[in-house]
Amino acid sequence: MMPLLHYAEIQAQIDAFDPIAYGKTRNYLDGAVSRLSPYLSRGVISIGDVYQRLKAKGFTLHEMEAFVMELCWREHAQRIWQHHNPQVELRNKQLWIQDYDYLPNEILSAQTGIDAIDQALLGLFKTGYMHNHMRMYVASLVCNHYGAYWKTAAKWMFSLLCDADAASNHLSWQWVCGANAPKVYFANQENINKYAKSNQHQTFLDTSYDKLPQLKIECDWVAPSYAFVPKNPKQLSIDTNLPTYLYTPYHLDPEWRYSTKGNRILFWDLSHWQEYPFTEQNFNWINDLAKLNIPDIQIYVGHWDNLATNLKLEQCYTKEHPLMAAYPIDKDARDWLLPDFEKAPGSFFNFWKKVHKHLSNEQ
Ligand SMILES: Cc1cc2nc3c(=O)[nH]c(=O)nc-3n(C[C@H](O)[C@H](O)[C@H](O)COP(=O)(O)OP(=O)(O)OC[C@H]3O[C@@H](n4cnc5c(N)ncnc54)[C@H](O)[C@@H]3O)c2cc1C
User: Fold this and answer.
1) Is 152 in the pocket of ligand 1 (CB under 6 A)?
2) Atom of ligand 1 nearest to the CA of 33
3) What is the pLDDT at residue 163?
4) pLDDT at residue 27 greater than cutoff 80
5) pLDDT in tens, 241-289
6) How far apart are CA 301 and CA 289, in angstroms?
7) Fold of 103-222
8) What CA–CA distance (Å, rounded) separates 236 from 296?
9) What separation in Å is there between the alpha carbon of 274 and the centre of ligand 1?
């Protein structure tokens, strides 16, 4: 799995990051990407933290523009989720679907025959991380050539990723299959060879771009399995004289309300498990990350109504997140590049213009 890092080590990783090299190499498999997404998606750090820290190191917005734009993709997806369920197509229905419920065994067993993709899949199974470009190649192969349903595939990849996040994940799957974009994304072997620095030829993807839309690949369909369902590890011990701070797999900020004493609980809400399951190793990794960074945290696996009977709701706090929206407790704002933005964000590039203007005015 990805390294279990303490907050200070994550800060050091940000400090060691070179956003200028990133701009030049980010599309390459061995490019200077940040690998910060597991800590961003788990809410240990925020996009605002990363931006401010790099700014404090002396990088100008212009110098780090390529990187800030990627952070903005994350923010854009999160803002969409505040208004739109990522399980629902944003624009169109996927045009071509061979199977709604099953996935290609070639993908699940990392035997597509495209070496760079198979290695990236093995890496994902082992570490819970995959480079963005490889995610795009995998998603294109799964939906646009094998014909799997994007939602089935998105759920599978979500379960494996340390940075699993429904906004970034499901909206990206939608983007690749054309459900959230005016066109479908394709990549051929030449493109994969260039960015993965591989040298493979005569594969089914070794063809020209005009042939890719018609390229339908036979596969062996299998049902993805989500056998692991977590159990509550132990009875909560709650001091009702103290406030309760609720953390979630999307909010593990060790700095949040850290100076006040309170009951600190990581709430695994089982009502979302069916749509958003994690593998056992991913579930354990997230719990270990929480315990490392918030030492007195207790873990609760279950449903809101059962948890709520243990709490004084008027003294219970969390951070705003779409999966917590229905629960009647105080929610602190998340940390954004563009705070106080209430509306649905519209197109990425219009949103980016607003973010850019706001950050330029701050300089
Ligand atoms: C099919 C598919 C599934 C994906 N699933 C997820 C997911 O579950 N969780 C997730 O965080 N990202 C997801 N992404 C987006 C992206 O691949 C990852 O954020 C990125 O690869 C993380 O690695 P990094 O931190 O080294 O990225 P870097 O390239 O260093 O980027 C820095 C940060 O910018 C953000 N970012 C970068 N690219 C994107 C993007 N395309 N969309 C949204 N944010 C982005 C991330 O927060 C990332 O940590 C997915 C992309 C695709 C194509």
Assistant:
1) no
2) 30
3) 98
4) yes
5) 999 999 999 999 999 999 999 999 999 999 999 999 999 999 999 999 9
6) 16
7) DNA Cyclobutane Dipyrimidine Photolyase, subunit A; domain 3 (1.10.579)
8) 12
9) 23
Identify the pLDDT of residue 114. 98
User: Is the CB of 78 inside a 6 Å radius of any atom of ligand 1?
Assistant: no
- Answer yes or no: are the C-beta atoms of 221 and 104 closer than 8 Å: yes
> Rounded to the nearest whole angstrom, what is the distance from the C-alpha of residue 241 to the centroid of ligand 1?
41
Q: Is the CB of 165 under 6 A from ligand 1?
A: yes
Longest CA pairwise span in the chain (Å): 69
Task: Map out the domains of the chain as residue ranges.
Answer: 7-85+348-362, 103-222, 244-332
**Mean pLDDT value of segment 205-231:** 98
Portion of the chain with pLDDT greater than 70, in percent:
100
Is the distance from the beta carbon of residue 168 to the nearest atom of ligand 1 less than 6 Å? yes
Task: Identify any residues that bridge with 222 across adjacent strands, giving them in sequence order.
Answer: 103
pLDDT higher than threshold 80 for residue 321: yes
Question: Reduced to 3 states, what is the DSSP secondary structure of residue 298?
Answer: strand
Nearest CA to ligand 1 atom 29: 33
Please tell me the class of the 7-85+348-362 domain.
Answer: mainly alpha
Residue 363 has pLDDT above 80, yes or no: no
Calculate how far, in angstroms, residue 2's C-alpha sits from the geometric centre of ligand 1: 15
Distances (CA, A) of 50 to 11, 75, 178, 232: 8, 13, 31, 33
Residue 233 has pLDDT above 90, yes or no: no
Cβ atoms 127, 247 nearer than 8 A: no
pLDDT of residue 158: 98
